Amino acid sequence: MTQLARGWYQDPDSQGADRYFDGKRWTQLSRTSSVKNPPLLLVEGWYADPRGKYAERYFNGTSWTDQTRGAESAAATSLAVDEAVYELRWIKRGVLAIFILLLGMGLLVFGQGLQ
Predict the structure, then answer these.
(1) Mean pLDDT, each 10-residue run in order, the chain (115 residues)
(2) d(CA 44, CA 31)
(3) DSSP-derived secondary structure for 23-68
(4) 21 C-beta neighbours (distance < 10 Å), count
(5) 64 and 35 fall within a common domain
(6) Within a domain: residue 2?
(7) CA 110 to CA 115: how far, in whole Å?
(8) Is 44 inside any structural domain?
(9) Could you read off the pLDDT of 13-36 as tens digits, one per residue?
(10) Which residues contact 74 (CB under 8 A, 6 or more apart)?
(11) CB contact at 8 A, 51 and 12
């Protein structure tokens, strides 16, 4: 993988905008480009994926391509895990609510039978 220096680069997803690379990964920081169609100043090669979905994306010397390599990023995987955990919490709450409701109904029915 080609090492990319920390700095502002043309955002591949937004014409006329720049995105900040912190030396390790692309951040969510963006700004309106002060230069119309600024040059990327990157040589052809593999770089950290500016879209953040894959480990690397290929830059052909002019623009980012659809060629990627490496598994989906930890951030994308982490988001899927977070969503699954959130859903599981609601399922647990629903099961608990049903259990309490059934317990209450059982106590009412059997409580009346004991009197």
Answers:
(1) 76 78 84 64 81 84 85 57 72 84 84 66
(2) 24
(3) SSSEEEEEEE-SSSS------SEEEE-TTSSEEEEEE-SSSEEEEE
(4) 19
(5) yes
(6) no
(7) 9
(8) yes
(9) 777 788 888 888 888 888 887 665
(10) none
(11) yes
